[in-house]
Amino acid sequence: MTSTRTEPEIRHPLSTKQGWASFAGQPNPEPPRLLPREDWKRLDGFERELYNEARQDYHSTLLLIATPDIRRVIHYGSKLVANNRGKQLGRRGLLVSGASGTGKSTSITQLGRKFQIDLQRRYPPNPERIPVVYIVVPPDADPRSLAREMAAFLGLPTGRRENPQSIAHTVAEVMRRVGTGMVLVDEIHRLDLTTRKGQDASDQLKYFFDTISATFIYSGLDLEESNLLSGMRGRQILGRFVPIKTGPFAYRTDQDKQDWVKLVASMEQTLRLHKHQAGTLIERADYLHARTGGMIGSLDQLIYEAANDAITDGAEKITKAHLDAVLLDGAAVAQFQQHRPGSPR
User: pLDDT tens across 187-205, in order?
Assistant: First the structure.
């Protein structure tokens, strides 16, 4: 085994042209090969450290499991792209809403990735093309900050005193020139349409929607409870966007339980542990749902953090103790405590 360590890779945020290009062009991670038992036992200290790190890094990488919500977002988003093709007027967007940890950002970024890969397969390479733009709405957003986010993704310089309209015009012109066909706007719930600033920011997004022949995808936290859909502008958003709701996995019917078990089994198959027995986590499906509330983000953390702990302590298999020791997000903890026997109602 080669005992070398490379320099840490510089990772650009997804909301930059470089970060998105890396994400869209990155193949699914290759699972590290599990060494035969005798070779594994012969590793010296440094070799074992590198070997363990490679497996832990693999577990920590987002290992995409195609959940029903992700499949729905990609399915309906792809249909909208086809329906919008060639239209100047009457285009529709997608409005993805759900609780934290239900895969909203994962869903829309996978949709954008699929769109870009399909485009690159269909047309000759063009280094000038930027098929997808992805931005995160900043807190307390206004027209200037939204336009600057778009400009930053495209790598366009903006002057401190440059007015929002000038930045927006430049951004729209560049996006048309580089062939942008999909615009992903994440954390859209930060726009408060009951305030003047939020209304102006919404109008800015509408300007981009009207002047760029692209499919727009909005994603945000429980949008039905936010102020994004308030008033005339909120009604206009609902008139132009197809809503999709993401949510936790239910666990009531036999079909619900089968879907959950399939998800757990898919994740268990990815584990790179020497002593873990397949089916161990499936036997704990009830417990895993109770701990996570059916949230895909919480399940991902629970399983892969427990797997990495099992590598660190040498157990090389996930035990109940490993799972119990993982500290999950506050929402998962609260719902688990609420449903434990003897907990106050």
Answer: 999 999 999 999 999 999 9
H or E stretch at 3: none
What's the CATH class of domain 249-334? Answer: mainly alpha
Listed by start position, the domains of the chain span 68-246, 249-334
Q: What are phi and psi of 100, to 5 degrees?
A: -60, 140
Fold of 68-246: Rossmann fold (3.40.50)
| The token pair that represents 187 in the structure block | 């954390």
pLDDT computed for residue 26 by the predictor: 81
pTM for this prediction = 0.87
Nearest residue to 72 via CA among 90, 97, 91? 97
| Pure H helices in 155-295 | 164-177, 196-211, 231-240, 254-268, 280-283, 285-292
DSSP state for residue 4 in the 8-state scheme: -
CB within 8 A of 227, min separation 6: which ones?
191, 192, 193, 194, 195, 198, 234
Structure tokens, 185: 């706007």
